[in-house]
Design a protein that fits this description.
alpha/beta; six-stranded antiparallel beta sheet
Length: 593
């Protein structure tokens, strides 16, 4: 196996790369690039013969690009034979070729071609401009060559033809016939490479199948990215997988990848298992959360390139769903699965009893395996399966046949929330006062305070004061004083976790000679976090409350007492009220692992 970097502009002979050995390229005699914006050490290129790919790392200041991926200083990506490397500022294009033979132009490594070794006074413009056909020695158009590479097995890539341009005497009809003949050969090769996409002989009789995807494509739907690999076929049976920690792991051994190409297949058994699923009539689908995209820490084009490289390595057609932010699509919420079933499976009904999901976020404790495995970072993948009602396995259970490991589900189970509890306690109290008063709400962000107040107190004439609306506690105090001066009751809808924050409004009540009551919302921290996730999924424009804010309330909380000056402390229980059908079922899903 040999690997060559080839200048599309034809400025020099192909540069041979050795397996795993980095080579520095940039402005200089090796590349014949004189562009001052190109650094002398613009990129490092390193071939990976096993993957038939080249790792490109930008070293220079100005941007390098590979396909649709634009690199910055220190960033890396993988380049395959279908990609074009532009050394700097979308200029100086290079392609890569893996071959068992040397290319025809076999001048010494990096040596300029004769066209550049002649009389220096000769104008370069006088040289005939070469096109990509000259350097790949084939009459096929680029699109045909791309189809050829994608269609055939990675171990048997067709060699580029060395015949050069057709003789001038050949007619256009002859070229078209030749192109048609080669296209037919490619289609036959594709049929052999992807039998699951063209035949049904290997499909189990109980699987319903749809059409086959004809080309690679990415789609964006808000916070959802979807990739369809050429050859994907819809099915009533879905085999779902997480990606990180399930299909791949890092080559570096670190928890988080250090670059876009810091990955390797997790276990040797993975490709074989996935291919067996396809042969059994399953559609293989990857579901992954990628919050880094919405946070600006991961560029979408970098993730896309990585995902495609993983599928190229596996050599199988897969559909990928990517949740790029918070909301309905983020696992363990079932938005990605729902979209698959409703809009991305050719109308074929998914039979959950035939489906399976595999993921590494399984809630396993520290040292769950003999080699002292670390604690799982969450239980999100297991909860995703639980929300869906399909079978779940960890990667070790599914790919290696290990026994089930112990696991821990979250302490709060939304399915067990009791809707029959009383709205408030003690029952002997009254919720609304006939005379002016001050009501001070106390409870976690997300405990249901605002919804409760707007439903039960505001319609009864209570003035509503909220720091989120007014901006400061000083304005809330001013609103309290104004309401009491006008003879109205007021409710302060803030978290009010400590004695100091509550005393401001008790003081207003005492000055006005009216009672102050405390409404203590009893929702736990787990319920508050769940409610916050639910609002993110269902309320447009809802501003997410960071878990740090919710945890901060817990650290500041001091239980209210009558000694502070309250005339009564009324406990308000959280009883969810669903006005739209389907929201109850969504609320009862686990929202965070």
């Amino acid at each position: 196996m040999k690997c060559y970097m080839k200048s599309v502009d034809g400025k020099h002979s192909p540069i041979e790369l050795l397996d795993g050995v980095g080579v520095i390229l940039g402005r200089g005699p090796k590349t014949c690039i004189v562009d001052r914006k190109c650094s002398k050490e613009q990129v490092e290129v390193a071939a990976d013969f096993e993957r038939r790919a080249v790792r490109i790392t930008q070293l220079g200041v100005n941007p390098t690009s590979v396909g649709e991926v634009s690199l910055k200083h220190g960033e890396s990506t993988q380049m395959t034979e279908d990609h074009t490397l532009y050394m700097v500022n979308s200029l100086h294009p290079y392609t890569v070729e893996f071959s068992k033979e040397s290319p025809k132009n076999n001048a010494p490594y990096g040596k300029p071609t004769a066209a550049l070794q002649g009389n220096k006074k000769r104008s370069l413009a006088a040289e005939p401009k070469k096109n990509i056909t000259d350097f790949f020695g084939t009459t096929q158009k680029r699109s045909h060559r791309d189809e050829e590479r994608k269609a055939e097995p990675s171990s048997k890539k067709l060699k580029c033809q060395d015949s050069g341009l057709k003789a001038a005497g050949n007619s256009d009809d002859s070229e078209e016939e030749e192109t048609a003949r080669k296209l037919k050969e490619l289609q036959e090769t594709a049929a052999k490479a992807h039998p699951s996409g063209t035949k049904t002989s290997h499909v189990s009789p109980d699987a319903q199948r749809g059409g086959t995807c004809s080309k690679d494509s990415w789609e964006e739907h808000g916070k959802l990215l979807i990739f369809q690999k050429k050859g994907v076929q819809s099915s009533s049976k879905i085999a779902g997988f997480d990606i990180d920690g399930t299909i791949i792991t890092t080559k570096s051994g670190k928890v988080f990848p250090t670059s876009a190409d810091d990955w390797r297949i997790l276990y040797p058994e993975v490709p074989k298992k996935l291919k067996a699923l396809l042969a059994d009539g399953y559609k293989v689908v990857f579901f992954t959360n990628q919050m880094g995209i919405s946070r600006g820490k991961l560029r979408p084009e970098v993730f896309k390139a990585k995902a495609e490289a993983i599928l190229d390595h596996l050599g199988i057609p897969v559909q990928i769903f990517v949740a790029t932010g918070m909301g309905i699509y983020r696992k363990p919420a079932t938005g990605m699965w729902d979209y698959l079933c409703e809009k991305a499976n050719d109308g074929i009904k998914v039979q959950k009893e035939d489906c399976v999901y595999v993921g590494d976020a399984a809630g396993r404790p520290a040292n769950w395996a003999p080699d002292r495995k670390k604690k799982d970072f969450s239980c999100g993948d297991r909860l995703f399966s639980l929300n869906l009602g399909i079978k779940f396995y960890t990667p070790e259970e599914y790919f290696l046949g290990w026994k089930s490991a112990p696991f821990q589900l979250p302490t709060f189970d939304p399915r067990t929330l009791d809707p029959s509890v009383p709205l408030y306690e003690p029952a002997s109290s009254t919720l609304v006062s006939a005379s002016p008063e001050v009501v001070v709400a106390v409870g976690y962000p997300g405990a249901g305070k605002s919804s409760f107040v707007k439903e039960h107190l505001v319609p009864k004439g209570y003035v509503f004061a909220n720091r989120d609306t007014l901006g400061t506690w000083q304005k809330c105090v001013a609103a309290c004083e104004e309401a009491l001066q006008n003879g109205k009751s007021i409710v302060i809808d803030n978290t009010n976790p400590d004695v100091e924050s509550r005393s401001r409004y008790i003081s207003c009540a005492q000055k006005a000679g009216v009672p102050a009551r405390c409404f203590l919302f009893t929702a736990t921290i787990e319920v508050a976090k769940h409610n916050n996730r639910f609002r993110e999924m269902t309320s447009k424009g809802h501003v997410s409350v960071n878990d740090m804010v919710i945890n901060s309330y817990k650290s500041k909380f001091v239980a209210p007492s009558l000694n502070e000056g309250f005339s009564e402390i009324l406990k308000i229980n959280f009883v969810p009220n669903f006005k739209e059908p389907g929201l109850r079922a969504l609320y009862q899903q686990f929202s965070e692992g």
